UniProtKB/TrEMBL annotation:
It holds the Pfam family MraZ. Keywords: Cytoplasm, DNA-binding, Repeat, Transcription, Transcription regulation. This is Transcriptional regulator MraZ. It comes from Pararhodospirillum oryzae. SUPFAM superfamilies: AbrB/MazE/MraZ-like (SSF89447).
Length: 146
């Protein structure tokens, strides 16, 4: 699959529908997908998205029986149980569940960030803060000053 690249900001309507960037849709549609898979990313405070192929690979790596008392089960639970498949409407929009938008602090607009095999969906202000506090200091430490 071609990588998801670029950063795009799109409006979110009152129902929670948002247009997936055309370049992201093209990547997915080239693989025969008419949907995205999303899950909350509580560590970063955003939503992570990808194609069904990635979810299938993650599922294949998960034991068939997950003992929820097992500390190693938490990542599998978070990835599989909290994932949602969202189908594109005729306008290229998806309906993100309200609980997921709320968890990421997304209301009237969302920033899509391509990161290769995955993409993230952010509240614009939270994404700006993340870039300022996490990415710039790391770039400066490497001497790139990005």
């Amino acid at each position: 699959m071609r990588p998801f690249i670029g950063t795009y900001e799109n409006k979110v309507d009152q129902k929670g529908r948002v247009s997936v960037p055309a370049k992201f849709r093209a990547v997915l549609q080239a693989e025969g997908y008419a949907s995205i898979v999303v899950r909350p990313d509580p560590e970063r405070g955003c939503i992570e998205g990808y194609g069904m192929d990635r979810l299938e690979r993650l599922s294949d790596m998960t034991p068939d029986i997950v003992n929820l008392g097992d500390p190693n089960a938490a990542p599998a639970y978070q990835i599989l149980a909290e994932s949602e498949e969202l189908t594109f409407d005729p306008n290229g929009r998806v309906l993100i569940p309200a609980w997921m938008l709320e968890a990421a602090g997304i209301s009237d607009s969302a920033v899509f960030v391509g990161l290769g095999r995955v993409f993230q969906i952010w509240n614009p202000a939270a994404h700006a803060t993340f870039r300022a506090t996490q990415l710039r200091p790391a770039a400066q430490a490497r001497g790139t000053g990005a």
